[in-house]
Amino acid sequence: METSLLNRITIIPDVCNGKPTVRGMRITVETILQYLSAGDSVDDILKAYSFLEKEDIQACIAFALKTYPLPKMTSN
Hints:
76 residues
């Protein structure tokens, strides 16, 4: 499932200065993540961007986790 989600994220040099975007549209992964971190719900984002699908939001999260792995915890 993760692979199919990640296929929704595109990097095209001429679109949004090569930043990762959703399905080649001019909405960046960063923008979606900023909405989520600000407390907006998936439904809020989908209402604001009617062309997006729930899977697009999931893809942004999956991309962020794949691209920016969480640091490993070390014991003291």
